[in-house]
Amino acid sequence: MGARASSAAKGRAGEDLAAAFLEGEGWAIAARNFRWRGGEIDIAATRGGVIAFVEVKSWEFLGPEELERAIGPDKRRRIVETSKIFLSRHREYNDWSVRFDVILVRGGAVVERYPSAFTGEP
Predict the structure, then answer these.
(1) Which residue pairs from 69-76 have beta carbons closer than 8 angstroms and sit at least 24 positions apart in sequence?
(2) Cα-only R_g, the chain
(3) End-to-end CA gap in the chain
(4) Coil vs helix vs strand at 27
(5) Which long-range contacts (CB under 8 A, 24 or more apart) does 108-117 make?
(6) DSSP annotation of 8
(7) Which fold has domain 3-118?
(8) Element of type H or E holding 2
(9) Secondary structure tally for the chain: helices H, strands E
(10) What's the rounded Cα separation, in Å, for the pair 85 and 79?
(11) Which of 25, 54, 93, 104 has its CA 20 to 30 A from that of 14?
(12) Residue 64 burial (CB < 10 Å; 0-12/13-18/19+)?
């Protein structure tokens, strides 16, 4: 198994932890790993008229201060554009509030959650 496969497995495990964490907070998981033309939404979760598009980062050695660099303007733009495609395909969320969250997973646990980490505006 190569480093890429190992990294993908670590990412999936982190997304599993993040999804369970969100469900424990009363969120329903609407979708996972929604992809469109170079963009991906790790998790789309819903609760109380809000749909959160959640980026999950599984890092063992980097801290929260590195998130801004890892989720830079290009990555944020791809997430926002992909969320627009998701919403166009799932019109049941048309009137819902939208936000973009980030969850940091380390050591097999969610260590930090950043609700409304960035906006959908340029």
Answers:
(1) 71/102, 71/117, 71/118, 76/100, 76/118
(2) 14
(3) 40
(4) coil
(5) 108/13, 108/17, 109/17, 110/17, 110/18, 110/21, 112/64, 113/21, 114/64, 114/67, 115/52, 117/55, 117/67, 117/71
(6) H
(7) Trna Endonuclease; Chain: A, domain 1 (3.40.1350)
(8) none
(9) 3, 5
(10) 10
(11) 93
(12) middle
7-14: which pairs have CB atoms within 8 A and are 24 or more residues apart? 10/58, 11/56, 11/58, 13/58, 13/108, 14/56, 14/57, 14/58, 14/105
Domain locations in the chain? 3-118
Is 20 within 8 Å of 32 (Cβ atoms)?
A: no
Two structure tokens written together for 95: 């009137």
Residue type, 76: R
For 1-122, list the strands marked E by DSSP: 28-36, 39-47, 50-58, 97-106, 109-118
Provide the 3-class DSSP secondary structure of residue 11.
helix
Give the span between the Cα atoms of 50 and 81, in whole angstroms.
Answer: 18
Tokens of 41: 């939404």
